[in-house]
Amino acid sequence: MSGHAGLFAIVGARVIDPANGIDGERTVLVRDGRIAGVESPGALPSFDGVRGERIERIDARGLWLLPGFVDLHAHLREPGEEHKETIATGAKAAVAGGYTTIVAIANTRPPIDNAALVRFVKKKGEEADLARVLPAATITLGQKGEGLTELVDLAEAGAVCFTDDGRPVANAGVMRRALEYSRLVGRPIVAHEEDLGLAGGSMHEGEVSVRLGLRGVPGAAEEVMIRRDLVLAELTGAHLHVMHVSTAGSVRAIREAKSRGVKVTAEATPHHLTLTDEAVKGYDTNAKMMPPLRPEADRRAIVEALQDGTLDAIATDHAPHATVDKELEFDKAASGIVGLETAFALTLRAVQRGELKLTRAIELLTSGPARAFQLDAGTLTVGAPADLTLIDPEARWKFDAKKSSSKSHNSPFDGWEFSGRVVRTFVGGRVRFEL
Ligand SMILES: [Zn+2]
């Protein structure tokens, strides 16, 4: 991999930068790891201050140049379950998928509930030196849903958000206090919405679960908690971010709250955008995730909400599991799938099927998530970090989960054929993945 340390220009690519309204051929100049200019083709000599310097040119004709992707939701399993993933292997899978910034979710063993652990995640990310790894911290101590963590200390140590993901915050009073404290630090409370009294099944509760004889989780398990937390977000004026939205009812609740000015952002996963509960037929445990895959009407509602802005981001919920945790009876198997290396292809597939507009799809992977968490990422604005992803839009390829950079291979998309592929990823102007 070449370093491209000082000064270089990427020429000939179709640049798509939704935050700046750019979609067309441009020359992108990078200097000292930051975007130094985005100019019309042929304008290279006019860049200020570079006349006479030797500029390395990277020929990117036929490719798309996008801001590096931003994932608000990746489980990296370190500390505690390094046999499933480490921060380094997760960050490697990230750059292979075109991601340059990922938020490491906090439900590790132990959970990230103190400043020392936040610093540990940050340091491991820096040592890996691949994608930028931003730590999340938990809302409650030990993720027990009772005592709050020291949100101010955690934010100072580098936590970009607070989440008990993997579990809901069951007690409304605890959630209210968390939202109140989160205002002091200006970081979102990020919610896994699941009413445990309605949960406990292994797939969506509906026609398919009845046919398969599996216990289901109704959409209501998600919707009642989202509605509760929207009420609390309104009460406190705090920023609530809703993770992995999966039902039409959830979308309606968020849309209505946004229209009234409640400070809420939300994400959906590539799998909820792609698959329905029909994928569970055959009892493939790689179709088991929480929230579960839903019926087609819900999938369509998610697509519509991603397109119309009700949902702000596509987030992977990358959830590596060892084979032994997945090769079990359906109701005993672990929930979740790896997602960093297929997210872009699945998002582009939605574009190819006419479900999402291309620029909106790119926005949902870049400036959409960055804005939701107020991160300095996801754009090609001059001065921004040169985090870039090059795509070959014509490349046809087959996802082989076994060859993934992740330590785990639990994916329902193993063997799927896609067109459009990440071919190179730059982080801070340095090549961190190359096909
Ligand atoms: Zn979750």
Write structural notes for this entry:
- This protein is an alpha/beta fold.
- The chain has 2 domains: 7-65 and 384-434, Roll (Urease, subunit C, domain 1), CATH 2.30.40.10; 69-372, Metal-dependent hydrolases (TIM Barrel, Alpha-Beta Barrel).
- Helices cover 29% and strands 22% of the residues.
- It has 13 helices and 20 strands.
- It has helices at 87-96, 115-128, 151-157, 172-185, 207-212, 220-236, 248-259, 270-274, 296-308, 323-326, 343-352, 358-365, 367-372, and strands at residues 7-11, 14-17, 22-25, 27-31, 34-39, 56-59, 64-67, 69-74, 99-104, 132-135, 162-163, 189-191, 203-204, 216-217, 240-242, 264-268, 313-314, 388-398, 417-427, 430-434.
- The strands form 5 sheets. It has a 6-stranded mixed beta sheet with strand order 3-2-7-18-19-20, covered by helices on one side. It has a 5-stranded parallel beta sheet with strand order 11-12-15-16-17. It has a 4-stranded mixed beta sheet with strand order 5-4-1-6, with no helix packed on it.
- α4 packs across α6.
- The termini are close together.
- Zinc ion (ZN) is lined by residues 165-166, 192, 243-244.
The overall number of domains is: 2
**Through-space gap between termini:** 10 Å
Assembly context of the chains: single chain
Assigned CATH superfamily of the largest domain: Metal-dependent hydrolases
Mean pLDDT, to the nearest integer, reads 96
Q: What's the structural blueprint in terms of helices and strands?
A:
Elements: E1 7-11, E2 14-17, E3 22-25, E4 27-31, E5 34-39, E6 56-59, E7 64-67, E8 69-74, H1 87-96, E9 99-104, H2 115-128, E10 132-135, H3 151-157, E11 162-163, H4 172-185, E12 189-191, E13 203-204, H5 207-212, E14 216-217, H6 220-236, E15 240-242, H7 248-259, E16 264-268, H8 270-274, H9 296-308, E17 313-314, H10 323-326, H11 343-352, H12 358-365, H13 367-372, E18 388-398, E19 417-427, E20 430-434
Parallel strand pairs: 1-6, 2-7, 8-9, 9-10, 11-12, 12-15, 13-14, 15-16, 16-17
Antiparallel strand pairs: 1-4, 2-3, 4-5, 7-18, 18-19, 19-20
The chain binds zinc ion.
